[in-house]
Structure formats: structure tokens, C-alpha cells
Amino acid sequence: MSESTGTAVQDPSKGLQLGVIRLPGHPLVSGPFTHLAAERDRLAGLRWQHFDARQVGATLGAEISGVDLTTPQPDAVIADVRRALHEYKVLFFRDQPLTSAQHVEFARRFGDLEIHPAIPSNTGQPELVRFEKSAQVAGFENSWHHDVTWRAQPSMGAILHAVSVPDIGGDTLFSDMYAAYDVLDDETKAQIENLDAVHDFTRVFGHAAPEEQRKQMRERFPSVVHPVVATHAATGRKHLYVNRVFTESIVGMDPEAGNALIDRLCRQVDYPEHQVRLTWRPDTVAFWDNRAVQHYASSDYWPQIRIMERASIVGPRPTR
């Protein structure tokens, strides 16, 4: 502060230790997200033999060009796409006018496909979940989540094709679950290292159902338990594996304390520094690693039409 003018002479953050600080009274952090730097720079140095990849987020997201998904690809290209998925966590492909059969054929190259029990499918392809939103059917996907964590073997990944999109709105956001774990302080990491969480199907798909129907749903799809911190089967990296949508409780914790912990962990997903945002165009395809990211579909386009189709690839059971 200058005595003569009463104005600051330097940025008040000068001299502060680099890294985030905890905001008093709130489970939030502020400051430079220095934990992103190494991963951001590592991704920037990657090069690919069978396509080009343009990095679009600090630690996640790449727009892939030079691959035509409407035609069968050689095994070497599929292997490179799989590796790129593990590196960038989510891949974006533009101008891919896939038929339903081509969509399924491409997705099947990465593993067995799921059949979703609660969301209607494309009538010609049961492996494709169809999200058809309009003035009569609104979108409720605007909560951060991993897909189907209520399964014993949740999705490894998902491939979403934009069939019809609004002129404005309906973006999908993705958040890096490695970064969400890395930003945690050492005390929290130690606290959650060996914790498990209960994931329940009926939290979303049964919220409006009568109690008897909810009971039947639970009998068909009982609650499952997954680690709060999982180790990615392909990369060996630790990532958060709880979400507000399907995670019901923390095993062995008082419900109030468990809910507070789930919320505190899920707040790491909310930081824009951990995110990348996709603005859809017709025939855009997104392929995300359902373990390494959570996603959020912005519901800001009603009453316009948004039609998407998704194929999901069965994954292994999450482990520590």
C-alpha cells in the first residue's frame, strides 16, 4: 500500500505459496491449480500415428480428426483410439454421420455392450440408449455423474452420437476424476483411502415409483458397493468414484457425516479447472472413459429438440 496514494503497489497474491488454499468456513479451494500442470504439459507432447488430436482442455479432452467412424477401422487404429481415450479421458469426433448399425459396430470394437433396463433404446438397436428430448420430454441429465455406478460392473466407457441438437444449449461437460482426487489434501486422501460407498439404482430411476415398485427394482438390481477411491484398470491411476446421483452412503459412517463427505468430494467435480465443455453439432461423437470422468448435460434448451444415442461398453468391477 502506498502511503501517499492509499493504493496497492503490488498484487496481494505476490509472495503467497503456490497452490490452492482452503476458504475458511467452506469446503472450497481457491488459487492456482498447480496440480494440473504436469498432466497438461504431458498431454501437449503426445503424438499419434493414425490420426491428429487437438488438446482442448487442461487435463482432459481432445478433438480427433483423420478417422472416419462410418467405415470399419483396422485394429491398429482402434488400439490407438483406445490409448488416446486413456490419455485424454474423453475424445470428440466431428462430422461423423453414423447409422445406428455403424455406431454399434464401432462401440463393439472396445468390448461387450450394455442393455440399459430403464431408458428406452433405439428400436432397431437395443444396445443404443436413445435420449429424445422435446417440449414434452425434458432433460434431467444435468447432474454430475458417472454412468450406471449402481451396476456391479459399471461402464468402461460410452460413445454418444448427436442425432439432432438445438441451435443453442445442450452442451455436455466432462470433469477429470484424477484431478479431482489429486487436489485433495493429504488428510482427506488418508481418510478415504480404504472407504467404500453404496450405489443404488432407485435413487434416480425409482424416485417417483410407488414403494412396492421400488422394492421390485431393488430385488432386480440390489445396491452395490464400490471403493470411494478406485484404481483405473488400464492406467493404474487413482480417481474419485463417488457421485451425487447414484452414491447413497459411505459404508460404516453415520449417514449425516457420510453425506457431508460425499458432498465434499463431489465438490471437486464442480471446479471449471477440472472440466472441458463440448458444444455439439449434428453428427458429433463423444467417447468418454466412464471411470476417469464424470459428465453433465446442460438442460438449457427446452422446449427445443435434442436427440442423442449412446452405446455403453461394459467395464470391470472397480477396485482399489
Descriptive key words:
single chain; 320 residues; Double-stranded beta-helix; eight-stranded mixed beta sheet; three-stranded antiparallel beta sheet; 8 helices; 18 strands
> How many DSSP-defined strands?
18
Number of helices: 8
What's the CATH topology label? Double-stranded beta-helix
Strand content: 25-35%
Characterize the main sheet: 8 strands, mixed
Global structural class: alpha+beta
Characterise the protein shown here.
With 320 residues, the protein is an alpha+beta fold. The strands form five sheets. It has an eight-stranded mixed beta sheet, covered by helices on one side. It has helices at residues 37-44, 75-88, 100-108, 177-182, 186-192, 202-205, 211-220, 255-270, and strands at 21-22, 29-30, 52-55, 62-65, 90-93, 121-122, 125-133, 155-164, 172-176, 196-199, 224-227, 229-231, 238-240, 247-250, 275-278, 285-289, 293-297, 306-314. The longest helix is centred in the C-terminal third of the chain and has 16 residues, at 255-270. It has a single domain, classed as Double-stranded beta-helix, CATH 3.60.130. The model has no long low-confidence stretch (mean pLDDT 92). The N and C termini lie far apart (51 Å).
Give a nutshell description of this structure:
This protein has 320 residues and is an alpha+beta fold. The protein contains eight helices and 18 strands.
Topology:
Blueprint (H helix, E strand, L loop, with lengths): L20 E2 L6 E2 L6 H8 L7 E4 L6 E4 L9 H14 L1 E4 L6 H9 L12 E2 L2 E9 L21 E10 L7 E5 H6 L3 H7 L3 E4 L2 H4 L5 H10 L3 E4 L1 E3 L6 E3 L6 E4 L4 H16 L4 E4 L6 E5 L3 E5 L8 E9 L6
Parallel strand pairs: 4-5
Antiparallel strand pairs: 1-2, 3-4, 5-16, 6-7, 7-18, 8-16, 8-18, 9-15, 9-17, 10-11, 10-14, 12-13
